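The passage that follows is intended for readers who have already worked through the single-chain material. We present the inputs for a multi-component assembly, then the predicted structure in tokenized form, and finally a short commentary. You are encouraged to pause after the input and sketch how you expect the pieces to fit together before reading on.
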Amino acid sequence: MLIAKIYVKLKRDVSDPQGFAVKGALESLGFKGADRVHVGKYFVIELADMSRDAAEVMVRQMCDKLLTNPVIEDYTFTVEQNGGEA
Amino acid sequence: MLIAKIYVKLKRDVSDPQGFAVKGALESLGFKGADRVHVGKYFVIELADMSRDAAEVMVRQMCDKLLTNPVIEDYTFTVEQNGGEA
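Having made your guess, compare it with the prediction:
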């Protein structure tokens, strides 16, 4: 079984109010040193048997059509054979 | 500058309705083969100058105290030197 892991975050020049809120909360808890915080999405998709190449093509289409908003978000993904939880 | 990347997802035996919804949406768009979908959070934190060891200790505390709910969520993280966007 293949596991696709997709990491989505806002483009660097897009305002990230959720990130600001988390940064503020970290500071109020006494954590110093977090210069900037970005909050994104993380998808883990278990794929039925198919080749890795086919999986990569499909995952890219999934990202472009549903999982991400390409206007404001960037994504990266990996496709791995089974195991290796993260 | 150090970059911490934190990946949070629900524990495997916790119901993930958002994942079900995404799976349904993928199927309605014609994507076959997504057996299971998990939706999680992804944090990228830019840390001011500190040692990597100190950063790892701090990031773990951030996760335990604010960023994750250890009752229902698992997390992993990496701390890298600068660059290497993901």
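Commentary: Chain A has one domain: 2-81. The CA atoms of residues 64 and 70 of chain A lie 7 Å apart. How closely did your sketch match?
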